[in-house]
Amino acid sequence: MRMRTFNVILFALLLAFQFCFGLDALKIGDPVNYSIKIPIADSLLIIEPTGLPVRVLPLDPLHKPDGNVFEFSAAVYDTGTLEIPALAILLFVKGQVTDTIWTEPREVIVGSTLADSASAPRPLKPYEEHPLRVADIVREFWQWAVGALVLGALVFAWLRYRNRPKTGEVAPTPPPLPPADLAIRELIALRDNKYPERGMLKEQYSEFSEILRRYVEGNWEFAALEMTTYELASELKRDDLPPGLREELLPVLRESDLVKFAKQIPTLASANAIVDLGFKIVEQTKPRIEEVKEGQTV
């Protein structure tokens, strides 16, 4: 009862503080509405503040920036007084960032959801009139429950003993995936992450570069992961490498270096296209079945 009264008083104080100082008083998960005028664009991306319990609510995919007032909402998932900093809105035209619009900072008061003040329903009949009680069930069947637990433990111990590895026998480890199959799996996972649509361009290019370097290292046995792009360019001149590998791979690795280290911002189309290029490189350069058999025979 005291806790319920305390919650009511606390929420009333929050409302009074809002009235005096003009702050938004919300409960956890309530939307904080924004309305801002932005120029015409093909699409936009709202950057959430890092380190704060603030999330931008899903946007209407059919609502594109048309030069009028644009509305969206965010939600706060913590209690207390919180200052939401200015949110950056990136505008895209033909896949390139053309402008950045900033919202005004907001200060809100977030209270917890009030406890249910409804009293517990009273039983229709006195408790003594109910013949079945938990204590009666335990008293009647506890021997069966203990016996079932002991029997289950014995069965589990027997199964563990029967399936134990024999002395000196080592369980075989599964063979590793061929480099080409591993690269295909990792490229599919990279495509499904949708990094460009989430504004994570550096992660897109970093993981792509690592996947292709691991593929080259696994197929031709030199430390491509530890080499710089300049060192790798010299190594790719070897005669035993597939034709076209150097010409296809080096340009996209150099572009990845520019995005990772020089903070170059590629277009969304270019960021998505490198995954398809990765599939093409792996498919064109992976060892064929006939070459693998010939190498095993020799």
The shape is: flat
Mean pLDDT: 80
Spans of at least 5 consecutive residues with low confidence: none
Assess the beta-strand content as a share of residues. 15-25%
Supply the helix-strand structural class.
alpha+beta
* Count of the domains: 2
Distance between the termini: 84 Å
Radius of gyration from CA coordinates: 32 Å
Number of helical stretches of at least 4 residues: 8
Main pleated sheet: 3 strands, mixed
Please count the beta strands (DSSP E, at least 2 residues each). 9
Biggest β-sheet: strands ordered side by side in the sheet = 1-9-6
Helical fraction: 40-55%
Give helix and strand order, one letter per element, not per position.
HEEEEEEEEEHHHHHHH
Characterization of the model:
By secondary structure, this protein is α+β, with helices and mostly antiparallel strands. The protein has two domains: 2-111, Immunoglobulin-like (Sandwich), CATH 2.60.40; 179-297. Helices cover 45% and strands 17% of the residues. It has helices at residues 2-21, 134-162, 179-193, 201-220, 229-235, 245-261, 268-285, 289-297; strands at 24-27, 31-37, 43-47, 54-56, 69-76, 80-84, 88-93, 96-102, 106-111.
